[in-house]
Design a protein that fits this description.
This protein is 27% helix and 23% strand. By secondary structure, the chain is an alpha+beta fold. The strands form four sheets. Strands 1, 2, 9, 10, 11, 12, 13, 14, 15, 16, 17 and 18 form a twelve-stranded mixed sheet that branches. The protein has a four-stranded antiparallel sheet with strand order 5-6-8-7, covered by helices on one side. The radius of gyration is 23 Å and the shape is globular. It starts with a strand and ends with a strand.
Amino acid sequence: MTKSLRRTGRFSASLTLAAALLSSVSLASAAELKWSSPTDPQTMDPHAVNSAPVLGFLNNVYEGLVRRDKDMAIEESLAESWEPLGGDGWRFNLRKDVKFHDGADLTAEDVLFSYERASSEEADTSSWFAPVKEVKIVDDHTIDFLTHAPNPIFPDSIANFMILDKGWAEANGAERPAKDSETFATLNANGTGPFKLTSREPGVQTVLEPNEGWWDEKKHNLTKATFIPIANPATAVAGLLSGQVDLINPVPVQDVGRIEGQDGLTLHQDIEARVIMLGFAHGHDALKYSDETSDKNPFQDVKVREAVQKAISAEALVDKIMRGNAEVASQLVSTQMKGFSDAASERIGYDPDGAKALLNEAGYPDGFSFGLMCPNDRYINDEALCKAMAAMLTQAGMKADLKAMPVRNYWPELRAGNFDMYLLGWSPGTFDAEHPVRFLVTTKNDEKKLGSWNFGGYSNERVDELLPQIQKEIDAEKRQAMLDEVATIIRDDVVYVPLHVQPLLWGSKSNIDLTQRADNFLMLRWINVN
């Protein structure tokens, strides 16, 4: 899956800022690893925040009933096998003699506790369990997940469902996760995974060390792994070039050639599963950040939403902002995902004159102003993308007031509804087109655990009617026909504006062997330092 590219060249740079950030970290020995990304995981609690920086990091510490292999296929993890219970759900048979990092035994009680915790109102992962009716313990190492209807993709849907030790959580007052506050599990961890959390300094560094009692075969040679969040891309590149860090993710697109051409470094390049898109405040009756349009919300009109898509050249964004290192997207999943709709693959294209005509038809001949929210440390070139789109929209008559901020502030703003339009990236955890429908498009329903990331409040009765049918349909052709219908509704109603599929761009020292997965999770259990 990884393409490694090497060339010879020379580069020198000032490392003052990088050295200041990294001075607290000693030089690594051969089997140590120091890596950086712009976003520090918000929490060490695997049920508190459903985001890739959190889940990707914690997949090294916690484990689930199932996991994904190097090619993203589902395989056994804490469950050594599973089987369907007719159409009533799934039975999982747990491994025996698995221990948590503190030495406690894993049992079905821990799985039940983790389900109750991860599906609770306080959890950001509750939507994963919308199909579940009940969970029953059969014995210490057997547990049944009973579903409301047949659910053939349920094992795939819980690949990132991580198991906590019930006794540890209860002893430390962490019975429930906390999104916007802290519990003991926010800064501490006790999983069954290949690495243990030994030090956590939010925003500075997080240190992991191998779990010598891990149940699985060890395929890495790391003795210590230190994560250092570096928000500034130039500083991260300087740190890699100087040897202060061993691996950076991502490589800024403007520095791809520099990493390729540097002796002793390797560029790892591929395509991620993540689609970058724009979302709208469908449910807001009025714009919140307009200078002149304060009594209504133009984005509730599909003509205006279509005008937005026609005003933006996704091809130019890929060419200029992403330097050609991305693919234009036509829907909420990439072509590599199961359930991608060929029937809805024709994209509403760039047409600035058409955008102006649609605004005129919608009653906005002079356009309007609005607020565009954007993170500046979450996706590759996120702020630059938003600036470029703001300029394109302004040319069509829609003046964007851009507010960019760190992702730690961004998610609370979106959850509070403080936006008129916003940038979002989505990687389907199941690698199936049903996933974004459930999270991003279905009407928000806390009781049914649906629409938890549908920040804009979009609602469509037909989509809501089709989703449970898609989830239980076993016949591939019938299921795809329903996915095609949903994809067509999403496209024609311009629920979101799909932009591009984000690239995978990692840079490392050339003595590092690794696996680059399409979910952009850095899996330490496959890394060897030679």
